[in-house]
Design a protein that fits this description.
The complex is a heterodimer. Chain A has four helices and nine strands, in the order E-E-E-H-E-E-E-E-E-H-H-E-H. Chain A is an alpha+beta fold. The radius of gyration of chain A is 13 Å and the shape is globular. The chains are: A alpha+beta, B alpha+beta.
C-alpha cells in the first residue's frame, strides 16, 4: 500500500489502483454523512478535486492522487457514508483508477514514511 | 484532500496549525484534555469540538440520555441597582430589550435580545430576576460589544459586572433531571425557565432549567475553584457523557434555534428571524409598556406588517448538506437568488441534511420547492417549519 501527503492510500490491483483515505484522515474528518463520487470514465489529472465528502462538521474534497482514468466507483458509499469511518482501509475504498503512467505509484510514500508524516 | 474547510461555521476553522496560545482556556480545560477532547478555537476560546465519542454519537446521546457541555465561554453578567430597587434597573434594561423585565417573576428567566437603534440584533441572551439583581447570560463572541452597549446605555443606577470567577456548564437531555436531583431534590420542582440558587458541597450553585439543545435540562453556574470537582462527579454518574461544540451546533440546528453571528446579527430584525414569540405582549404596539426600546419603530411595525425576508427551515431532497452561505433560487435556471442558507448540516436524529436560512417572504410557504446551488449545481430543497425535532421542555402547563 502507498500513501499521499493528502492522506489517501493506493493499492495496486491487476492493471489499476484502488484509492481510499487513511484511518488518520477518517478520524480527523469525523462522522461522514455525504459522499459524491465521480463518473466512471472520467479522465483525471493529479490534484483534480474528484470526490466530495462531508462530515457532520465539514465539507472536504478528495483529489486525484495521480493522472489517469476512473474505471470504477464504490457506489455503496453514497448510501452508507459511515462506512468510511468504520472501515476506511477496506470496504470504504472510493474509486479504482487506471494510471496513465503506472510507474508513478512507486514515487509515493510507503507506510513508514506516511506514519512519520502524521507523527 | 482533507482541506478541513468548515463551511458550517467559520469559528470552527483551522483545526490544525492554529496558534492556540492566543485563545482563552476555560477552568475545565485540563479536564477536556484528560477526556481526550479535540480542541478548536471558538469565539476567542479554546473549546472542545468533540470527545472520542464523536459528534454523531454525542448528539444522539444527548437526545436519548444526558450530555454535559462546558459553556463557560459564555458571559455571565450581573446588573445591580445602586438604590436597591430592582424595578428601576429592570425599567432601564427594558429600553434595550423588547421583553417584559419589570414583571419578570423572581427566580424566573426569559429569552430575549439586545436590539440596536435600527432594529437589528446586537446579541441574544437569557435574563433572570435574582431578587436583588438581574442575571444575564450572553454569547461569548458578543461579550465586549454587549458590555460596552450596556454600560453606555443603562442609567447610572445600574452597576454592571461581567463575572470572571464563575464557570458555566449545561446538563441537557431527558435524564438531566434524574442526574441533577442526586445533588439537590429542589430541582425536581423547577419548570422550564425557572432558576434556583442553592448551596452544594460548600459553594453556591446557580441553576436555571434551560439550555440550547431543544431538550429538558439545566444550565449550572459554579465558582471556578469548584468546577472541575463538580463536573467530575457529574461525569461519574451513569448516562452522563461530555459533549462538544460540534454536537451543540447540530442539536441547536435540529431544534431550530438561532446561532448568533450566523442566523441572526446586527442587520437581522427579530421578525425577519422568526423571533416575534420572544417579544412580550406588554412591549408590543397595543401593550401596556409599548415600544420605548432601541429599534422599536421598525420592530413594532414589522410585527404588524411583516417583512420582505423570513427565516425558515430548509430540507434538501438529496443527501448533500446545504451549509452556511449557500444561495437559494426559485427555479433551476434563475440567476437572482431569493435567499441564503445561514446554518446547515446533518441532523443525526432526523437522519437527513437540514438547513435554515432567509428567504424572500413570497417563497416561505411550507412545502414550497426551491433550489440551492452547491458546487455549481442546482439541488432541490423544500421549505419547512421549524424546529426539525420536537422540543422536550418541562413546561408548567
Amino acid at each position: 500500500m502507498k500513501f499521499t501527503e493528502e492522506h489517501e492510500w493506493l493499492l495496486k490491483e491487476d492493471d489499476h489502483v484502488i484509492v481510499g483515505i487513511t484511518e488518520h484522515a477518517a478520524e480527523a474528518l469525523g462522522d461522514l454523512v455525504f459522499v459524491e463520487l465521480p463518473d466512471v470514465g472520467t479522465a483525471v489529472s493529479k490534484g483534480d478535486e474528484i470526490v466530495v465528502i462531508e462530515s457532520v462538521k465539514a465539507a472536504s474534497d478528495i483529489t486525484a492522487p495521480l493522472d489517469g482514468e476512473i474505471i470504477e466507483v464504490n457506489e455503496q458509499l453514497t448510501e452508507k457514508p459511515e462506512l468510511v469511518n468504520d472501515d476506511p482501509l477496506g470496504a470504504a475504498w472510493f474509486f479504482k483508477m487506471k494510471l496513465t503512467d503506472p510507474s508513478e505509484i512507486d514515487g509515493l510514500m510507503d507506510e513508514d514514511a506516511y506514519k512519520e508524516l502524521i507523527g | 484532500m482533507v482541506n478541513y474547510v468548515h463551511l458550517n461555521s467559520a469559528d470552527f476553522s483551522a483545526i490544525y496549525g492554529d496558534n492556540m496560545a492566543d485563545y482563552i482556556q476555560t477552568a475545565l480545560y485540563d479536564l477536556h484534555i484528560s477526556l481526550g477532547a479535540k480542541m478548536v478555537p471558538f469565539a476567542g476560546y479554546e473549546m472542545p469540538v468533540q470527545y472520542p465519542t464523536g459528534v454523531m454519537k454525542e448528539h444522539i446521546h444527548t437526545r436519548n440520555k444526558v450530555g454535559l457541555f462546558d459553556v463557560s465561554h459564555m458571559g455571565q453578567v450581573i446588573i445591580k441597582p445602586k438604590n436597591g430597587n430592582l424595578s428601576d434597573i429592570a425599567a432601564s434594561l427594558e429600553k434595550l430589550i423588547p421583553i417584559d423585565i419589570i414583571d419578570l417573576p423572581k427566580y424566573h428567566q426569559r429569552y430575549g435580545f439586545l436590539t440596536n437603534k435600527h432594529g437589528g440584533i446586537i446579541d441574544d441572551l437569557m435574563v433572570s430576576n435574582q431578587g436583588d439583581h438581574l442575571f444575564l447570560v450572553i454569547n461569548a463572541g458578543c461579550k465586549k460589544t454587549d458590555v460596552e452597549h450596556l454600560r453606555d446605555n443603562l442609567d447610572d443606577n445600574c452597576e454592571l459586572e461581567l463575572l470572571e470567577n464563575r464557570s458555566l456548564i449545561a446538563l441537557q437531555g431527558p435524564k438531566a433531571e434524574k442526574v441533577l436531583s442526586k445533588f439537590s431534590n429542589q430541582i425536581i420542582d423547577m419548570f422550564f425557565m425557572d432558576t434556583l440558587k442553592v448551596q452544594l458541597q460548600g459553594f453556591e450553585v446557580w441553576i436555571s432549567r434551560s439550555g440550547y439543545t431543544g431538550e429538558d435540562g439545566f444550565e449550572i453556574s459554579i465558582p471556578n475553584d469548584n468546577i472541575i470537582e463538580f463536573t467530575e462527579q457529574l461525569l461519574e454518574i451513569e448516562d452522563v457523557l461530555p459533549i462538544g461544540l460540534g454536537a451543540r451546533d447540530s442539536l441547536r440546528l435540529e431544534a431550530g434555534l438561532c446561532l448568533y453571528g450566523h442566523d441572526i446579527d446586527q442587520n437581522s430584525s427579530p421578525t425577519e428571524a422568526g423571533l416575534n414569540w420572544a417579544i412580550s405582549k406588554k412591549r408590543r404596539a397595543s401593550g401596556t409598556r409599548s415600544g420605548n426600546f432601541l429599534g422599536s419603530e421598525r420592530i413594532l411595525n414589522e410585527i404588524s406588517n411583516g417583512t420582505d425576508i423570513k427565516r425558515v427551515g430548509i430540507v434538501p431532497i438529496g443527501r448533500a448538506p446545504m451549509r452556511e452561505g449557500v444561495e437559494l433560487f426559485k427555479d433551476r435556471n434563475d440567476t437572482i437568488p431569493i435567499g441564503k442558507v445561514t446554518s446547515g448540516g446533518f441532523g443525526p436524529i432526523v437522519e437527513r441534511a437540514i438547513s435554515m436560512g432567509y428567504l424572500d417572504t413570497r417563497y416561505t410557504k411550507v412545502n414550497t420547492k426551491i433550489f440551492a446551488e452547491i458546487r455549481g449545481k442546482r439541488m432541490e430543497a423544500v421549505v419547512t417549519s421549524l424546529p426539525f425535532t420536537k422540543l422536550n421542555f418541562k413546561r408548567s402547563n
